[in-house]
Automatic annotation (TrEMBL), chain A:
Alphabetic keyword roster: Disulfide bond, Glycoprotein, Membrane, Metal-binding, Receptor, Repeat, Signal, Transmembrane, Transmembrane helix, Zinc
Similarity remark: Belongs to the type I cytokine receptor family. Type 1 subfamily.
Coiled-coil annotated spans: none
Organism field: Pagothenia borchgrevinki
Record GO terms (molecular function): metal ion binding
Domain Fibronectin type-III: 148-247
Membrane topology per record: Single-pass type I membrane protein
Transmembrane segments: 254-275
Location(s) in or outside the cell: Membrane
Classification of source organism: Eukaryota, Metazoa, Chordata, Craniata, Vertebrata
Protein's recorded name: Prolactin receptor
UniProt xrefs under SUPFAM superfamilies: Fibronectin type III
A GO CC term attached to the entry: membrane
Automatic annotation (TrEMBL), chain B:
Leader sequence segment: 1-28
GO CC annotation terms, alphabetical: extracellular region
Family matches, as Gene3D superfamilies: 1.20.1250.10
Classification via PANTHER family: PROLACTIN LIKE (PTHR11417:SF33), SOMATOTROPIN,PROLACTIN (PTHR11417)
Organism: Pagothenia borchgrevinki (Bald rockcod)
This protein's name: Prolactin 2
Membership in a protein family: Belongs to the somatotropin/prolactin family.
Length: 518, 229
């Protein structure tokens, strides 16, 4: 500014100098104004009102009070605590501002009275003013809160059955328990591993405690706190933890092994039982014998079958087997001859025995002594005994005709060819008519019908495929063998040795050639 | 037959009575102060424990009642008078610290305790009466007031017994005047307790019951020190 003026105010140099000085004064004034304005914007003021927070007596002999200062007004502020006391005249200031830290007041034993009311106020003051807090009334009796117990120690007693933890601690150092002035009660809490569940126990006035509900392998955390008379509980002490050794771990694999082995044994036993359940069932529940009826074999009855039914009814073999042999025996047949000479030669022997319509049966089984065969064998003396062995007509038998081979072709296989009995001579000889009666009547002694077939007697077997049939020669006889029965031909025909062929099939020889069936 | 039954029942009843009396004599015999024959002698230690327990219980009840009253008639902190209330027992000189209590003589301490207990006999009776008539309070509170009243009576009798025992044992001298004439103890210039409000009465009694408990404990640990101290 001044330089400009120099240029302009060349003619008036004096006036420019005075203008500069004025400007400097204005500048200073402006600066001062700015400063004051700045100071005012940061609010330097009287301090704010402080607040008394709390007071606490740790042992009922001294106490400390704390306050919260208000705003300090951007000026260095000092705080003073003043108190009045019941039964004490006057206002007094805090005896100790330092021992308990900042913004606190510590009352030592000389300045502490129990069972009297204190009225406390805090005054904050700075260059600009003062501020006083609200009065705070208190009685030392009501503000007792002890320090936490110290020296909390744990030790584990490892007993075999179950371990236990012993806890021991010391009372807070500043409390006087010897004079009986205060009575301390303790409380502890235990936490297992990292859970958040604390379990609390009351210890009374003891400074030791035992925990029995601990399990091996766990980490236990213990905290203790205390109480004086009727005051407040202290803070919890520092955590102390202890780990219980897992000495049972060595036994665990063994017990597991034992349990696994026993489980395997059980499973095996169960499998064996299941496999042999039938025998086990029989052993456990023996079958109750059922009733037995004489003469009946129930097992065979149950098994069914018509053959077995019959057999089932036999218990003893006392039944004459003859009966059943008779059933099977169908092969009885009569040798009928037209040869009178043959007849007459034997008639003398036969006159005595009277067997009406005796057929000459050739039963393969038993009739070795068939009476009808006696005619055939003149020398057979055994036949004389056979008189008693007459077969009744009721037996199933059939008449077997000796046929000429030539008749075979004419014969109808299906039809039964019978000859009428012309005359019965003697015991076992029948005279037949020469006429043939075809299916117009027949002697049927059978209960069962047999296949009407024509049979011829086999005279001889000359070769494997040649069988010589016998002509109508009554004297000839043949014997047949059936699969099941055996006839001793030698006994019957001592005179004429015949070749007995064993026929493997049913025993009947079909005539050759077989006539066509109509 | 009924006659024999009656006689048998009578005999059994008599036996039962004798047995029960024997048991009671062992369990709750009257405390002998003069060494009489037939009564159970309690040790001083035991006596002290009983009275201390009693006083602790009394203080607990008074604290409960006081906090109940505070809920109903909570005086704002602004209304706290500078000097506070004046309890009618404030004229009784009581030690207000541990050292003061320890320095006090046993007889004096015993006397202070007795003075306090005697001074509260009438006010508590009236307090209980006013509580019973006031239907604002539930039965629980009025029961507590009655219990408190009874406890003061019992505690006073217990402390008197302790003092007598101590005198007998020679622990304290016979200068305890409260035992002779209790009326002397009532301070003549004490503020009339009838003028006090109920809340102030409770406040004062809570404080005084705490004093009694503390004094008794100090006395006990001074006279019969054991692990309980």
């Amino acid at each position: 500014m001044c330089q400009h003026q120099f240029y302009v105010a060349k003619p008036a140099l004096k006036s420019s100098v005075t203008v500069c000085a004025r400007m400097r004064r204005d500048l200073r004034g402006a600066l001062l104004l700015l400063l004051t304005a700045a100071v005012q914007s940061s609010s330097m003021s009287a301090p704010g009102k402080p607040v008394l927070l709390s007071c606490r007596s740790p042992e009922k002999e001294t106490f400390t009070c704390w306050w919260e200062p208000g705003s300090d007004g951007a000026l260095p502020t000092t705080h003073h605590l003043y108190y009045e006391r019941e039964r004490l005249e006057g206002t007094y200031e805090c005896p100790d501002y330092l021992s308990a830290g900042r913004n606190s007041c510590f009352f030592d034993k000389n300045h502490t009275s129990i069972w009297v009311d204190y009225y406390l106020t805090v005054m904050a003051s700075n260059a600009l003013g003062n501020a006083t807090s609200d009065p705070f009334k208190m009685d030392v009796m009501e503000i007792v809160k002890p320090d936490a117990p110290g020296n909390v120690t744990l030790w584990v007693e490892e007993r075999e059955a179950s371990p236990c933890v012993h806890v021991r601690w010391m009372p807070p150092s500043n409390t006087d328990t010897k004079s009986g002035w205060v009575t301390i009660k303790y409380e502890l809490r235990v936490k297992k591993d990292n859970s958040n569940n604390w379990k609390e126990y009351t210890s009374g006035t003891q400074t030791h405690f035992s925990l029995y509900s601990v399990s091996p392998g766990g980490v236990y955390t213990v905290q203790v706190r205390c109480l004086l008379d009727h005051g407040s509980w202290s803070e919890w002490s520092n955590t102390t933890f202890v780990k219980i050794s897992n000495y049972l771990q060595n036994e665990r694999p063994l017990s597991m092994l034992i349990s696994i082995l026993s489980a395997i044994l059980f499973i095996m036993a169960g499998l064996i039982l299941i496999a042999k359940r039938k025998s086990v069932k029989q052993w456990v529940l023996p079958p109750v014998p059922g009733p037995k009826i004489r003469g009946i074999n129930s097992q065979l009855l149950q098994s069914g079958g018509s053959d077995n039914v019959g057999n089932a009814l036999i218990i003893k073999q006392s039944f004459p087997p003859i009966y059943f042999v008779w059933e099977d025996q169908m092969e009885d047949y009569l040798i009928v001859t037209e040869n009178e000479d043959w007849l007459s030669s034997n008639s003398q022997k036969r006159k005595k025995s009277l067997i009406p319509a005796c057929f000459h049966f050739d039963s393969e089984i038993h009739s070795k002594e068939s009476p009808c065969h006696q005619n055939d064998w003149e020398k057979d003396e055994e036949m004389s005994q056979v008189d008693n062995n007459n077969k009744p007509f009721t037996n199933t038998g059939y008449v077997d005709f000796q046929r000429h081979v030539e008749n075979v072709q004419e014969a109808d296989v299906k039809h039964v060819d019978y000859s009428r009995v012309k005359e019965v001579k003697g015991d076992n000889v029948l005279f037949l008519e020469k006429e043939k009666v075809q299916s117009s009547g027949y002697m049927d002694f059978q209960r069962q019908e047999r296949i009407p077939e024509d049979y011829s007697r086999v005279k001889e077997v000359e070769s494997d495929h040649l069988v010589v049939l016998q002509k109508q020669n009554a004297a000839d006889m043949s014997c047949k063998d059936e699969g099941n029965h055996y006839t001793d031909c030698a006994l019957h025909k001592p005179r004429k040795p015949h070749v007995c062929t064993e026929l493997s099939d049913s025993g009947y020889v079909d005539t050759i050639p077989a006539p066509p069936l109509m | 037959m009924p006659g024999t039954i009656r006689s048998v029942s009578l005999v059994s009843v008599v036996l039962l009575v004798c047995l029960s009396s024997r048991r009671t004599s062992v369990g709750a015999a009257p405390i002998c102060t003069n060494g009489q024959v037939g009564c159970h002698v309690l040790s001083l230690d035991n006596l002290f424990d009983r009275v201390i327990q009693h006083s602790a219980r009394m203080h607990g009840i008074s604290s409960d009642l006081h906090s109940e009253f505070e809920q109903y008639f909570l005086p704002s902190k602004n209304q706290i008078g500078r000097v506070g209330r004046i309890c009618h027992t404030s004229t009784i000189i009581t030690p207000n610290g541990k050292e003061n209590a320890q320095r006090m003589a046993r007889e004096q301490l015993t006397e202070v305790i007795l003075k306090l207990l005697i001074a509260w006999r009438d006010p508590l009776w009236h307090f209980h009466q006013s509580m019973a008539h006031h239907h604002d309070f539930n039965n629980f509170s009025s029961n507590k007031a009655l219990e408190m009243n009874d406890m003061v009576h019992e505690l006073r009798q217990g402390v008197e017994k302790v003092a007598e025992k101590m005198q007998v044992l020679g622990i304290i001298s016979n200068s305890v005047t409260s035992l002779a004439s209790p009326e002397v103890l009532l301070p003549s210039d004490s503020a009339d307790w009838r003028l006090m409000k109920d809340y102030d009465l409770l406040y004062c009694f809570r404080r005084d019951s705490n004093k009694v408990q503390n004094y008794l404990k100090i006395l006990k640990c001074r006279i019969v020190p054991d692990h309980g101290c």
